[in-house]
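The methods section describes the discrete structure representation at length, but only in general terms. An entry of this sort, consisting of the sequence and the corresponding backbone structure tokens, reads as follows.
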Amino acid sequence: MKAFFARWASTTFAVFVATGLLHDGIKTDSFEALVWAGLLLGILNAIVRPVLLVLSLPLIVLSLGFFILLINAFLLSVVGWLIPGFRVDGFGWAVLGAIVISFVSWALNNVLQNRARLKVHVNSYPPEAPPNLGQMKNVKGRVIEDESDPK
């Protein structure tokens, strides 16, 4: 459930950035409309988008992936049609909005996922530390990782 809210927040923030950058063509009347637009876009991306991607696979291959951008723009246009207070003023604005939303969502999700994967390993001396603890010695060898630690 935490992942769902993080994804929803990142999509909503991406839509907010798109409305800020493309305010001439993508408009929102209220914060509530923005939140609902982010939620509906997330639901459409999770349910409808995979179906559209499978059905349009030949076009995606022929266009070297460019058709995915058109699918994203179509879904953004659908959100503009269904959410009162959120408007997309044409398919060209939807394409630009899809580019901005895709980039911002990708960047946010990448940062959030990398932050969750960050692990810190702390090596400490055993309680019976050697008496020459403050001296450094050059040692040749290799690192052997603990196999009980799943990565």
